[in-house]
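name: query_chain
kind: protein
chains: 1
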Amino acid sequence: MAKLTEEELLFRKVEEKVKKAIFEYGLIVDGDRILIGLSGGKDSLALVDLLGRRSKIFRPRFEVIVTHIVMSNIPYRSDIDYLKSRADEHGLSFFVHETSFDASTDTRKSPCFLCSWTRRKALFDIAKRHGCNKIALGHHQDDILETLLMNMIHQGAIGTMPPRLKMDKFDMEIIRPMCLVEEKDLTRIAVWRGYRKQIKNCPYESGSSRSDMKEVLSRLEAINPEARYSLWSSMSNIQEDYLPKIINHKS
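structure:
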């Protein structure tokens, strides 16, 4: 039996983390039909590979389809044939959907929020149209921890993107199967698998504070190499007795 390469071992380690997330957080069960939103970035490309392979395994039994959303008012040129080939490799159906948003319609919300919500709404519509009950997104552990830090710093709230989120309004669940996977591992997989970078030129991207949070997370890991795991554990280890409470005195 041939010895596995370092990259193959890494991919298997990532597959094990996805498997752990699926069972620990109840992300996928028998009979699920799942829509993957394939943006063309390394994370969503990896998700297609990971769930495409996983769907061929006996337990749990589920189906996967893939969609790419084109935002016509953003200069983002995707190689549609290439993206389709990534779905074809696993025998997955692939659909393209075009939509747009107008940033002037709601000046209270940032263009990034409006773009993200427009894409998300399109995913709900596509999922319903194709009989899916879940939507899988390519967020990894770094994304989730960075969102936690952003919410704490900018919103004064402890919250983030959960591995599983039930959207009652749309009768749909959002799942994040790569919630336990580190971004650095996905970066290595992208090189090994030869993922092609799509041309992205978003005029609103500089307005995001996510890059700042990446630096904060990196700095925390420099202070403590186990910082990301402590942050992750802290979200399910809320010690309310040791947090400040507002006391409402009766007049």
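note: Residues 10-206 form a domain with the Rossmann fold fold (CATH 3.40.50.620).
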